[in-house]
Write a structure and sequence with these properties.
InterPro entries: AAA_lid_NorR, CheY-like_superfamily, Homeodomain-like_sf, HTH_Fis, P-loop_NTPase, Sig_transdc_resp-reg_receiver, Sigma_54_int. The protein is built from 15 helices and ten strands. It has 412 residues and is α/β, with parallel strands linked by helices. A five-stranded parallel beta sheet has the order 2-1-3-4-5, sandwiched between helices. Helix 5 packs across helix 6 and helix 10 packs across helix 12. The relative contact order is 0.07.
């Protein structure tokens, strides 16, 4: 329910409306005049305003015009005298949504407020959809997926008011996209010329509160920094979380956002911050199809290769896989899939899900790099050798190790 305000210079009417609405379970804030209402209403959050037309100092029409100049989404219902058609017309021209004739029944007021609420909800829904569409088409990171969790995440990020929630938690396992989500959030709510500043938690002072806060304030005060992205926050001590919580209160009106990326938030402090949860792939399997195709096609485009043909059987097998490192691992597999020549493009080309050791990771990187360079030079080993700065024997040994045949790249 949006905030509802009632403005009338007659105390008896204000009291009766407030009591009647309270009985119906509706909270309504009353003001004796338009000047006080303009001073107190938070115009950053659109709501419903019911105002009398004829008031001293500032009329309801003047009040409506000034209010809508601050936020055009406010829905204003004006109260006019019986049969005062001309006044009602003037109010509607000023931007009022509806009008009621005095004296009015409470049920009619409730109906008018409900209709205004429905219209406000629809307007705000359209604003969110337009902003979300703009973010999905702008240059920068995209939050892909149509699972309920991803739809809700995008909507919550778009609807966020950074002036009220400028300290946030991104909670998720390794590879769930915390860094991309932070950049998405930054792009949503900060100017294009501002930057996201990445900061590892181990860089923060750990033993002195003054040093800790000064360290933050030095960065918060820089106009080019729109967002501080604090990652690996699981290592923060209880003392540092206490300082962060105090810092949040001190920076209540700060234009810079602070986004904290963490696997498991501390139970004592997590309620102090606005929290967004990023689910692992095993809990949003319906997104694997679109993510895998996007990563594979992006890699193919980057290396000027034809997009790979990904079969329904392949998608099904991918969906049934266990992605221990989530999107990070899926992207790695998709890029390797795009780089593989056609006769090696089956599912067998995908690396094992259990890529835990350093040697396995190095082998996969080496294989991907070789495939990329072989594609670039269409299998010409002399050019590959020169770029990678390896001996001919070493190059042949590597090709043999990874079962790569230069002839498969001739027409790449």
């Amino acid at each position: 329910m949006p905030n509802i305000y009632f403005v009338d210079d007659e105390p008896a009417i204000r009291d009766s409306v407030q009591q009647a609405m309270l009985i119906e379970g509706v909270m309504i804030t009353c003001f004796p005049n338009a000047v006080e209402a303009l001073q107190c209403i938070d115009t950053s959050q659109a709501g419903i305003v019911v105002t009398d037309i004829h008031m001293p100092v500032m009329t309801g029409i003047e009040f409506t015009q000034q209010l809508l100049e601050k936020n055009a989404h406010f829905q204003v219902i004006v109260l006019t005298g019986h049969g005062d058609v001309q006044t009602a017309v003037s109010a509607m021209k000023a931007g009022a949504y509806d009008f009621l004739e005095k004296p009015f029944a409470i049920d009619k007021l409730q109906t008018a407020i409900q209709k205004a609420t429905d219209k406000l909800d629809l307007m705000q829904e359209n604003v969110l959809l337009r902003k979300e569409l703009d973010m999905q088409t702008h240059v920068g990171p995209k939050l892909l997926g149509q699972s309920p969790s991803m739809v809700k995440l995008r909507r919550d990020l778009v609807a966020l008011n950074p002036t009220q929630d400028n300290f946030m938690l991104l909670v998720g396992d390794t590879g769930t996209g915390k860094r991309i989500t932070a950049q998405y959030l930054h792009d949503l709510h900060h100017p294009y010329d501002s930057e996201l500043y990445a900061l590892a938690a181990h860089e923060l002072p750990a033993h002195n509160e003054t040093e800790f806060k000064q360290f933050f304030f030095q960065r918060l005060s820089k106009p080019q920094i729109g967002t501080i992205y604090l990652y690996q926050a699981d290592i923060l001590t209880v003392q540092q979380w206490t300082w962060l919580t105090d810092l949040k209160l001190e920076c209540n009106e700060c234009a810079t956002s602070v986004i904290i990326a963490i696997h498991t938030p501390p139970t004592t402090f997590h309620s102090e911050f606005r929290r967004f949860d990023l689910l692992p792939l095993c809990e949003r399997k319906e997104d694997i199809r679109i993510l895998f195709k996007h990563f594979a096609r992006s890699a193919a485009s980057r290396y000027q290769l034809p997009p790979p043909t990904i079969t329904e059987e392949e998608i099904q097998q991918l969906t049934n896989k266990s992605w221990s490192e989530n999107i990070k691992q899926l992207r790695q597999h998709a890029e390797l899939r795009a780089l593989k020549p056609s006769d090696l493009s089956g599912l067998n080309c995908l690396a094992s899900d259990e890529q835990k050791s350093l040697n396995q990771r190095i082998d996969l990187f080496e294989q991907t790099l070789l495939i990329e360079v072989l594609h670039r030079y269409h299998g010409r080993l002399k050019d590959v050798q020169l770029e990678l700065q390896v001996s001919r024997k070493t190059l042949y040994d590597k090709l043999k190790k990874h079962q790569l045949d230069k002839t498969n790249f001739k027409n790449g």
